[in-house]
Amino acid sequence: MRVRHLSPTCIRPRTTGTMPNSTTISVRCPFCGTLNHIDIGRAADRPQCGECNKPVLLDRPLKVAQDDFDRTVLQASAPVLVDFYADWCAPCKMVAPFVDELANEFLGKLLVVKVDTDSAPDVAMKYEIRSIPTLIIFNEGAEVDRSLGLEPERVRGLIQGLLA
């Protein structure tokens, strides 16, 4: 497994201790699959993959696979919003623009990811996803709250309350 660190202006390498005011996340490059450690507070600087130098854009939801869920979501030092969806699901397609909006609105403060329940059945089972779309907010590896269907005001309020 390749693990790269992005340029020093955009990330801090993982260390045994924690640096003050740093919120590091680990995400796979959507182009080459390399795992990158990114300081989410510098997300607006458009960090680049340490391997292929293509941008790792955090102003939109990132797809997370079953193999990366724990590392990307549960080990993140920043809050994470997870959209559990399926490609065939019409209500999921209705929620998608709202999730995109949240990723852009909370850039640098919140990581927004999407998990395809058909491709990640173990994760869906672990979190008892019985209907989709389901949005779950995680903080420090623990589920904070969840929303079923389209509840934009409630979800935005939960995020704002968490980040306050």
Explain what you see.
- There is one protein chain.
- The protein has 164 residues and is α/β, with parallel strands linked by helices.
- It has helices spanning 69-74, 90-105, 121-126, 152-163, and strands at residues 3-5, 24-28, 35-39, 62-63, 80-85, 111-116, 134-139, 142-148.
- The chain contains four helices and eight strands; from the N terminus they run ββββαβαβαββα.
- A hairpin with a 2-residue loop joins β7 (134-139) and β8.
- It is globular.
Could you name the CATH topology of the largest domain? Glutaredoxin
> Topology as H/E string?
EEEEHEHEHEEH
Approximately how much helix is present in the residues?
10-25%
Flag low-confidence runs. Answer: 1-21
How much of the sequence lies in strands comes to 15-25%
CATH superfamily of the largest domain: Glutaredoxin
> Based on CA inertia axes, which overall geometry fits?
globular
Radius of gyration: 15 Å
Content-based structural category: alpha/beta
The main sheet comes to:
5 strands, mixed
Q: What is the highest CATH level, the class of the largest domain?
A: Alpha Beta
Query: How far is the first residue's CA from the last residue's CA?
Result: 36 Å
- The CATH architecture of the largest domain is 3-Layer(aba) Sandwich
Task: Please indicate the count of domains.
Answer: 2
Count the beta strands: 8
Spatial strand sequence of the major β-sheet:
4-6-5-7-8
The overall pLDDT average reads 88
